[in-house]
Amino acid sequence: MADPAAVEGLKSNAVKALANYLMLESAQKDQRLKQVSNQFYKNESKELNSSSVGSMSSSNSSNSSDSSNSGSNSGSNSGSNI
Asked: Could you say which DSSP state residue 66 is in?
């Protein structure tokens, strides 16, 4: 890669991935860290589910009222990864 900004972005992503991996490995051995990690996961899951349910119901209602846009919203909610 010749683009320095892209290289820095990839380095940053690699550091984040390594930090996440090390945290997960440590959480398996440390009971308190495991509890905190589980609680964080539960809170994030609730937040993501509540926000995605609201956006899905609003997009479904707009699709049902205007059939000419069928397929225009396909994949609009697929960008969230955990």
From this structure: -
The two tokens of residue 4 are 């320095």
Q: Which residues contact 82 (CB under 8 A, 6 or more apart)?
A: 44, 48
Residue carrying the six token digits 């609003």: 58
Which amino acid, 39?
A: Q
pLDDT tens column, 63-78: 444 444 444 444 444 4
Q: In the structure encoding, which two tokens stand for residue 28, read together?
A: 């398996």
Give the integer Cα–Cα distance in Å for 43 and 38. 9
| Helix residue spans in 1-82 (DSSP H) | 4-29, 31-65
Helices 31-65 and 4-29, packing angle to 10 deg: 120
3-state secondary structure (DSSP) of residue 68: helix
For position 6, what pLDDT does the model report?
94
Could you tell me the pTM of the whole model?
Answer: 0.42
